[in-house]
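Incident log, support desk, overnight shift.

02:14 A customer reports that sequence design results differ from what the structure should imply. Their input is reproduced verbatim below. On-call engineer (initials T.W.) acknowledged and began investigating.
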């Protein structure tokens, strides 16, 4: 232990206080609960949910994007949220159980130190792949194909091997227990190269993914909903960039006032800052989907009800579909038997009048309305109308048309009304 001098560190007492620990407990609990909801919502929506609207949506997206693009998008979404959920379940208990011993033993510090940075960099890589896959959904015509291709190469060919190298190298970063602000603290030392390289790649890849996401929708005459989705992606994606820049700048500049040769950071502060930034990235990426999407999935998955109360369709969507099908079947039966009833309803009479007006005078028999089962309907000849002396022939024709119409309305040969 090197305790010859007390080092200074920016915001050390604030970030090691009991109030900060209480805030972290609350923040981690809420963020973990949101992560569980996000993960289950996307899993239910893409794998379990099977409704008529969902099947139609997948058929439309398959025709528009192709099977491989849609499957890659679903795979990257589920991998990102599930890996982040598993990492959270594993990393947080390890850290909270080892936190009281970190500043007392170098071995406990080494056991805890390498887990959080590795999980953080893997989460960043998966986030870039998710944004890249999502950009293909917003660019079905490949207007920004070159940008998407360049982003894919930078993410998978350059950044992915760098992450793998840093995951193994960060484990071997030196740790030591020194006196910081009058307290014995386990620290890790690092050079300026690693955080700067990660920050540059983060800003570059994030901006390229956001441009690929928003470019196709803002370049042409897109609808209002599509433009809102594009601006939502830009807003929350930009916030992820800002949060990462802020935390990295803090980690780099917090130890500038010391005379040490290397940059250093207390292990507890380093891990907690990375975890907070990781949770913020997860929440902001998840909010790039509309909040009504999560609301609907939450109601269907946890409460088993349909949240669309405005349409009068309470209850589960399966029950609504079954009741709608029964109602349609009942209405079709009612319509098919309207002609055989002696007393028709007002709406059937109105429909019959419309059909009669569209057919024109003296065309009821050709349309199938003028015949009766027992007694044939009287026919009228336009050439030799029977007119009584002293009466108007036009009014007599109107009267006979009205009579034919009443006969056709009272008894029809089981012709359904459409």
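02:41 Re-run completed on a clean worker. Output:
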């Amino acid at each position: 232990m090197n305790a010859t001098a007390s080092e200074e560190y920016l915001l050390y007492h604030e970030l090691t206080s009991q109030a900060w620990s209480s805030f972290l407990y609350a923040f981690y609990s809420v963020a973990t609960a949101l992560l569980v909801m996000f993960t289950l919502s996307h899993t239910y929506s893409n794998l379990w949910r099977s409704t008529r609207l969902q099947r139609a949506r997948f058929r439309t997206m398959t025709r528009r994007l192709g099977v491989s693009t849609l499957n890659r998008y679903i795979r990257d979404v589920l991998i990102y949220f599930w890996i982040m959920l598993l990492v959270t379940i594993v990393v947080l208990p390890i850290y909270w159980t080892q936190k009281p011993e970190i500043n007392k033993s170098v071995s406990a510090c080494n056991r805890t130190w390498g887990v959080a940075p590795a999980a953080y960099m893997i989460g960043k890589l998966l986030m870039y792949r998710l944004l890249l896959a999502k950009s293909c959904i917003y660019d079905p015509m490949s207007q920004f194909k070159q940008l998407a291709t360049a982003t894919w190469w930078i993410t998978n060919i350059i950044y992915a091997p760098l992450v793998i190298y840093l995951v193994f190298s960060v484990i071997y970063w030196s740790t030591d227990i020194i006196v910081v602000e009058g307290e014995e603290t386990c620290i890790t030392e690092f050079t300026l190269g690693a955080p700067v390289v990660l920050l540059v790649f983060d800003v570059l890849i994030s901006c390229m993914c956001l441009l690929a996401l928003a470019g196709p929708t803002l370049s042409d005459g897109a609808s209002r909903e599509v433009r809102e989705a594009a601006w939502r992606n830009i807003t929350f994606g930009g916030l992820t960039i800002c949060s990462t820049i802020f935390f990295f700048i803090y980690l780099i500049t917090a130890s500038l006032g010391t005379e040490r040769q290397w940059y250093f950071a207390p292990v507890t502060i380093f891990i907690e800052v990375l975890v907070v930034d990781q949770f913020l990235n997860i929440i902001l990426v998840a909010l790039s989907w509309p909040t009504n999407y999560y609301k609907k999935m939450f109601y269907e998955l946890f409460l088993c009800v349909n949240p669309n109360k405005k349409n009068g369709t309470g209850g589960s969507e399966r029950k609504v579909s079954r009741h709608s099908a029964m109602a349609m079947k009942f209405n079709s039966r009612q319509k098919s038997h309207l002609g055989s009833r002696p007393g028709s309803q007002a709406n059937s009479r109105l429909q019959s009048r419309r059909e009669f007006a569209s057919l024109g005078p003296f065309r009821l028999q050709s349309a199938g309305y003028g015949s009766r089962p027992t007694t044939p309907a009287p026919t009228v000849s336009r050439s030799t109308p029977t007119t009584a002396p002293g009466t108007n022939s036009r009014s007599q024709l109107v009267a006979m048309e009205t009579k034919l119409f009443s006969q056709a309305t009272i008894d029809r040969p089981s012709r359904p009304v459409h």
